[in-house]
Design a protein that fits this description.
Length: about 290
């Protein structure tokens, strides 16, 4: 028994050292200063045309804004980090502010998302609305009704849950509801095409496997890109602009690819990440 206790204590003490010495490191996708590491694609516009300054950096925040729009006109926007990832923990800290732009759809009020395993910005067609990807949906409460965040939406994709192929466009998580303009932390643990977990304020709220291309909910795409049935083992990370003004103060990735061939180390690092990324002060949720 004493040996077991000592072994466990040593294991726990070594976890930070494991993460610090290993090849994987935190990558700050948003550097707090500019958008030089990102590509922009807004529906009805060419690649990297940041129409009406939709995506901008102010006061150390990555902002989605519509103050220069007169009408949204289905100009769905996405901003893509320029590097692909396959196995990682993505951490996003966001809040909703201001009012929705005129012309925005009713479902998009206080609605944004982080796209994972996405096609590239360059491979999207000019009028394509959403990238073929998995959306970690970010929602804000309306002040009174339950409205979970960390949901899954699937533009041009499907997933497997409990051994069954899921073709529904959106799957609701088990998270709390977060009203107002409070900061909320949502993460995604992505392990290639094996398992993906959505995490809200440190708690796992949705799990699925075998992400793959298929289904609808995306228009004007290049048929050569939409290879239905193809498993998604890697892709780009993008943030949305769906008509709701949003602030992001953190968008970071811990690369887990160096550990994928060593299950023991992988589990150790994931455990360490779970302990160190859980918010110390939680916002006020309402069911």
């Amino acid at each position: 028994m004493n040996k077991l206790i000592i072994t466990c204590a040593l294991f726990l003490c070594c976890l930070p050292a494991i993460a610090q010495k290993a090849p994987g490191k935190w990558i700050q996708l948003f550097n707090g200063k500019d958008l030089k590491d990102w590509n922009i694609k807004i529906a009805k516009h060419e690649l990297d045309e940041n129409y009406n300054n939709t995506f901008r950096v102010e006061n150390g925040l990555l902002k989605v804004r519509y103050d220069q729009y007169t009408n949204f006109d289905e100009q769905y926007g996405h901003i893509f980090y320029k590097k692909k990832f396959s196995a990682y923990l993505l951490v996003m800290e966001y809040r909703f502010v201001e009012k929705q732009v005129p012309g925005g759809p009713g479902w998009a009020i206080r609605n944004n998302g982080g796209m994972i395993h996405s096609q590239s910005a360059a491979s999207m067609q000019k009028d394509q609305d959403f990238p073929i990807s998995l959306e970690v949906q970010l929602l804000g409460g309306n002040g009174k009704d339950p409205r979970t965040t960390g949901n899954l939406c699937t533009p041009g994709t499907n997933v497997v849950m409990n051994g069954k192929l899921i073709t529904d466009h959106c799957i609701t998580s088990t998270s709390d509801t977060y009203h107002g303009d409070q900061w909320v932390t949502v993460s995604a643990l992505v392990l290639r095409d094996s398992v993906i977990k959505h995490i809200v304020m440190g708690d796992t709220v949705l799990t699925y496997t075998k992400p793959q291309i298929g289904g609808g909910s995306v228009i004007h795409y290049d048929p050569a890109v939409k290879k239905d049935g193809q498993l998604l083992k890697e892709g780009y990370i993008a943030l949305q602009g769906e008509s709701a003004p949003t602030d992001f103060r953190k968008v970071a990735v811990f690369d887990l690819e160096p550990y994928m061939n060593d299950p023991v180390k992988l589990n150790q690092v994931i455990h360490w990440l779970q302990q160190t990324t859980r918010p110390k002060t939680a916002p006020t949720p309402k069911k």
